[in-house]
Specification:
alpha/beta
């Protein structure tokens, strides 16, 4: 089974590319964003807590995310592979994911990094906010989220580089160009 971490700043296209990879390879997709939005929509205690962090452009605490992730992963059963989208976001989360997978006799196969210039990210997210109605896709919150990404999440790039798992691709151009680059990496695994 292939466990793939799809990585990039908010708005880099992780969800879109994950959907294409799921369709092509038959992978399962764990999007922490989708899981959290469902918790918020259902007004669970986790959802209420998570909403406070998200509305302020902050990351949801590791302990909440890791518990959800392990339960979601275990519920998937046997499959070709899993794409982790939006997790990990910090080095402690990456270490927790590595440990969680090791307990299950598996590991991360690759980290696929979508690289997109900052102003292009802001434009994409503002446009997404206009069409999706997501409250966290306004310019002020977007810039906070990108600052959090830069300070807390981007250190994962060198962590995955050290692990020998980092694969960077240009996250702009046509959807097909980006997908072809990702598929070329996956096909070598």
């Amino acid at each position: 089974m292939k466990n793939i971490v799809i990585f990039g700043a908010p708005g880099s296209g992780k969800g879109t590319q994950s959907d294409l990879l799921v369709e092509k390879y038959g992978f399962k997709h764990i999007s922490t964003g989708d899981v959290l939005r469902a918790e918020i929509k259902n007004e669970t205690e986790l959802g209420k807590t998570a909403k406070q962090f998200i509305d302020n452009g902050q990351l949801v605490p590791d302990s909440l995310i890791i518990d959800i992730l392990a339960a979601t992963y275990d519920a998937l059963g046997q499959c070709e592979g899993v794409i982790f989208d939006g997790f990990p976001r910090t080095i402690p989360q990456a270490e927790a994911l590595k440990a969680m997978l090791a307990e299950r006799g598996t590991a991360v196969s690759a980290m696929l990094e979508l690289q997109v210039p900052t102003e292009m990210l802001v434009e994409r997210l503002v446009n997404r906010g206009k069409t999706s109605g997501r409250a966290d896709d306004n310019e002020e919150t977007i810039r906070k989220r990108l600052d959090v990404y830069e300070s807390q999440t981007s250190p994962l790039i060198s962590w995955y580089e050290t692990e020998g798992l980092r694969n960077a691709v240009k996250g702009y151009g046509t959807l097909q160009e980006i997908n072809d680059a990702l598929c070329a990496i996956i096909d070598k695994l």
